Amino acid sequence: MSHSWKIIFSIALLLSASQSILFAQDDPGDPACQVCDLGDILGLNRAGEWNVYPSIQKAFLAVGEDDLQRVVVCPGFYEEVPVMAHFSDLIFEACGDVTIQGLTLKDVDNVVINGFTIDASGYWQGIGLGFGSSYENDHVLIRNCDIRNSGGAGVQLRPWNHNVVLENCNFSNNVHGVSSILYGGPYIIRNCTFEDNSLGAVMAAETTVTLENNRFSGHEYFAITRARSWAGVNLSHWITLRNNQFENNGGYTVPGTHDANLGNFHLIIDASDEQPGYTP
Is residue 278 a contact partner of residue 239, using CB atoms and an 8 Å limit? Predict the structure, then answer.
């Protein structure tokens, strides 16, 4: 990835709490979404030209050939589980109320995903960062998404993903709200709501993650849990919790190791004022 695009991605992160013209707004009448007058699925190339595509997957397949820097999806329900594969430097955003059935990332770098409802009913995951351990996805920002009803994880973080931020997202009625597998990170999960999943955030012991300012409520079991590493080594310093809220989670209590909110809390450090989290 070029130095200039690293700068652009950093700027996108800094603007994550603001309304930027880079990102679609909730109201399809917003000027940023007037492009929807041209079609349902559109791509903006680096020459400033808009192209219309028959499906989200077709737009992704055209990213390299058409030199797209932005793909916009206009209001509607799309029976698609598209795959982003083998490209970099793309903003993928919803204008208004847009529902898709899932999304998979495969070897992408410097990608922003903004504003989608992902109803993964009948599917294993809402957003999967790879088909398996052999694909690497780096510098990914997922924000303002409502991810629900997956049979596995709302967001599945696969091994060897790096610099992933989940921000201002809602996770509901998934088996796991967010789940990680083996090595990965650093990840930031912030300002998200986890509600009525079986488990909120399920972290592998080898995952480096900061969870801050999230709300966890109504889970059947624990809000946050992580496994012991394969070698039995305590890697608790790889997780940071800051200012998270816990309400009515159904985990069980084992003195010294578990409470209703944290499974394996002896492997989790909650050092809100002492331990620095990862900052991109």
Answer: no
Q: Give me the torsion for CA of 178, 237, 262, 127, rounded to 10°.
A: 0
CA 118 from centroid of its chain's CA atoms: 11
Token pair recorded at residue 134: 């052999």
- Radius of gyration in angstroms for the set of CA atoms belonging to the chain, rounded to a whole number: 19
pTM of the model: 0.85
Residue with tokens 């989200």: 56
CB atoms within 10 A of CB 186: 19
Residues of 125-159 as b/e, b for ≥16 C-beta within 10 angstroms?
bbbbbbeeeebbbbbbbbbbbbbbbbeebbbbbbb
Q: What is the 3-state secondary structure (H, E, C) of the chain?
A: CCHHHHHHHHHHHHCCCCCCCCCCCCCCCCHHHHHHHCCCEEEEECCCCEEECCCHHHHHHCHHHHCEEEEEECCEEECCCCEEEEEEEEEEEECCCEEECCEEEEEEEEEEEECCEEECCCCCEEEECCCCCCCCCEEEEEECCEEECCCCEEEEECCCCEEEEEECCEEECCCEEEEECCCEEEEEEECCEEECCCEEEEECCCEEEEEECCEEECCCCCCEEECCCCCCCCCHHHEEEECCEEECCCCCCECCCECCCEECHHHCCCCCCCCCCCCC
Q: Beta 125-128 vs 153-157: how paired, if at all?
A: parallel
Q: What is the pLDDT of residues 126-180, one digit of tens each?
A: 999 875 556 788 999 999 999 999 999 999 998 778 899 999 999 999 999 999 8
Q: For residue 122, what are the contacts with CB-CB under 8 A and spacing of at least 6?
A: 101, 151
Cα-Cα end-to-end distance for the chain: 15
Q: Give CA–CA dist 106/141, Å, rounded.
A: 15
